[in-house]
Amino acid sequence: MKLLKIAALTCVALMAPMSGTAFAYPVKDPKLTENPLYDAGPLPTTTCEERPVKRNDRKLARAYIDAVIACLETTWEQHLTKAGLSYEKVKVRHMDRIPKKYCGLDIGKGDSQAWWCARNDTLVFQLGKDWLDDPSDLWLFETAAGMYGYHVMKLVGIFDSYKSMNYRNKSEYAEQERRKHLQNDCLGAAFMKSVWPMGNRTTKDWNYLLTLVRGDGRGEPRWYGKTGTIKAWMRAGFATGDPGSCNTWAAPSSKVA
User: Fold this and answer.
1) CB neighbour burial string for 107-117, b if at least 16 within 10 angstroms, e if fewer
2) How far is the CA of 155 from the CAs of 81, 89, 159, 180, in angstroms?
3) Residue 14: which pLDDT band, with cuts at 50, 70 and 90?
4) This prediction's pTM
5) pLDDT for 75-107, tens place per residue?
6) How far apart are CA 209 and CA 232, in angstroms?
7) d(CA 77, CA 86)
8) What is d(CA 162, CA 160) in angstroms, rounded to the nearest whole number?
9) What is the rounded CA–CA span in Å between residue 28 and residue 80?
10) Whole-number Å distance between alpha carbons of 76 and 37
11) pLDDT single digits (tens) 212-239
């Protein structure tokens, strides 16, 4: 089953930030709300050819993800360097089973997982049966594209500014977490738009991907946003292909619920 919230599968591997003094809540840090990334315009239009995948073939699925990462590197290097922003490649690792305490976190027992470790700027993928049972949809593509968003946020200073943010209580901290994850979802969708259309893919494939999205459920911690909220930010990124549409830090609280 893939009916999981995308953000939950792209958790950031780091400790919760301590309350600081640099900027008060709500978000006032211009590195977050007025980051140069938002003024750089739409991502360049490029092509990204999907590699073949087969049911329950982990080797092909890993090659598929690596090919998507290569497309992401091409697009984001061109975009960031043109805007005068820093760029460097992300590290990628594939594991049959991610160690329980990888990057200092309790990874959990999920069959398929994808993580970004802030300590070494590395994307780690664990491809299990639930993701490989039918890899013909856009799930693996969007997972890789969304994961790369954390690397982008690190490159442009958003991630470091997020870590230094102040918060007065758990509710404010949870909202900051949602802003981070929702921005990541939007950036992944913006990249997808920049390489769209792809091969035989149609709007039907995009719409089906959205049906797989699940947000925070009733009674769950509010870390990722409601299902409708996640879809709204993904649609915003896909509609424009512009990271400027992904400024969750300046959005009202109602838009990151």
Assistant:
1) beeeebbbbbb
2) 11, 10, 8, 14
3) very low
4) 0.91
5) 999 999 999 999 999 999 999 999 988 998 778
6) 13
7) 9
8) 5
9) 24
10) 11
11) 999 998 889 999 999 999 999 999 999 9
Q: Where does residue 128 fall: left (phi above 0), alpha (psi -120 to 50 degrees), or beta otherwise?
A: beta
Helix axes 203-211 and 227-240, enclosed angle (nearest 10): 160
Tokens representing 199 are 């091969």
Q: How far is CA 89 from CA 16, 152, 238, in A?
A: 25, 10, 23
Alpha-helix runs per DSSP H in the chain = 6-9, 30-33, 58-82, 129-132, 139-155, 158-163, 170-194, 203-211, 227-240
Sign of CA dihedral 217, 221, 226, 227: negative
**What is the rounded distance in angstroms from the CA atom of residue 189 to the CA atom of residue 41?**
15
Q: Is 249 left (phi over 0), alpha (psi -120 to 50) or beta?
A: alpha
Question: pLDDT band at 252, cuts 50/70/90?
Answer: very high
Q: Which two tokens stand for residue 239?
A: 């509609």
Angle at 17 between CA 223 and CA 252, to 5 degrees: 50
Q: How many other C-beta atoms can be found within 10 angstroms of the C-beta atom of residue 214?
A: 17
Alpha-carbon distance of 48 to 60, in angstroms, equals 16
Find, among 138, 146, 140, 144, the residue nearest to 128 by Cα. 140
Name the least confident of 20-34, 89-103, 105-119, 133-147.
20-34
* Residue 18 neighbours by CB under 8 Å, 6+ apart: none
Q: Which residues of 34-54 are buried (b: 16+ CB within 10 A; e: fewer)?
A: ebebbebeebeeeebebeebe
Place of tokens 């089906």: 208
